[in-house]
Design goal:
alpha+beta; 4-stranded antiparallel β-sheet
Length: 165
């Protein structure tokens, strides 16, 4: 069997192997690129009064605890705090993906919304399926994709090279 025929066969079967992981990565990647444009994916950032945060952690937890959907009662229920001094806000993300935006000076609740971008990101990197799926699923898919690119380049260039000879 010639090298070109073997190359085409490998190219074809490798394409089939990575079709689903690649499709998932493409779709979720496109959604993540649009997350700031589509409020359904990620809530729009509001603007607070001051650019210097002055509220205490106790005030942040008290306000976050007042939002029933977020299901926050202790700091263990908080996934992260995102402090945006330039916008005058503090974003509190709960473990169940609800986001509470507080004014960094008055502790007023500016917005409460469900945040889907983190879920889409776990699909994108494969960790939705299993914590190490990014290593045993997405990394091999990326390596196979690189191999497909190289074999595809060869399949594209080889006929021109052959004509020149």
């Amino acid at each position: 069997m010639s090298f070109s025929k073997t190359n085409r066969t490998i190219h074809k079967w490798a394409s089939i192997v990575i079709a689903l992981p690649l499709l998932l990565t493409i779709i979720t990647g496109a959604l993540l690129l649009l997350k700031k444009e589509i409020t359904y994916i990620q809530p729009q950032s509001m603007k607070g009064i001051a650019q210097t945060p002055t509220i205490s952690f106790d005030e942040i937890l008290k306000q976050a605890s007042s939002i029933e959907q977020a299901n926050i009662s202790t700091w263990q229920d908080v996934n992260r705090l995102d402090v945006r001094p330039s916008k005058g806000i503090i974003k509190v993300r709960s473990e169940n993906q609800w986001e509470i935006q507080l004014d960094a000076k008055t502790a007023e609740i500016l917005q409460v919304a469900y945040r889907r971008s983190d879920f889409i990101e776990t699909l994108h990197d494969g960790t939705f399926f299993q914590d190490k799926a990014n290593l045993w699923l997405m990394l091999p898919a990326a390596i196979i994709l690189l191999f497909l690119w190289l074999t595809g380049l060869y399949l594209f260039i080889y006929p021109y090279f052959r004509k020149r000879k």
